[in-house]
């Protein structure tokens, strides 16, 4: 449904939208919310396994960053180094 990667210093992503819309009665917007929530949980879990970072704190920081990014400009094609790592 989603593929993302960093190449030549920029974030690239590819989406497959319309799957639920075309094949089920599921509201695709809600389905994407579930996907994004599951992805955030998996990232937090993987960070804990790889680095020992607390999963619940990581998830809080991911959610804060997600919410804050809506107040900023679209980062499509932005340099990966421009992401605030603090």
General description of the model:
This protein is about 50% helix and about 15% strand. Strand 1 and strand 2 (about 10-15) form a beta hairpin. It has a single domain, classed as 2-Layer Sandwich (putative pyruvate dehydrogenase fold). Mean pLDDT is about 85; it is low at about 75-85. It is α+β, with helices and mostly antiparallel strands. The protein is built from three helices and two strands, in the order ββααα. The protein has a two-stranded antiparallel ribbon with strand order 1-2. InterPro entries: DUF5076.
Record the SSE blueprint.
Elements: E1 2-7, E2 10-15, H1 19-23, H2 28-51, H3 55-69
Antiparallel strand pairs: 1-2
Unreliable runs: 77-86
- Measure the end-to-end span: 29 Å
**How is the main sheet built?**
2 strands, antiparallel
Largest beta sheet: strand ordering = 1-2
**What sort of overall outline do the alpha carbons produce when their principal axes are compared?**
globular
Content-based structural category: alpha+beta
Helix percentage range: 40-55%
Number of domains: 1
Mean pLDDT: 84
Pfam families: DUF5076
InterPro entries: DUF5076 (IPR031796)
Organism: Rhodopirellula maiorica SM1
Protein name: DUF5076 domain-containing protein
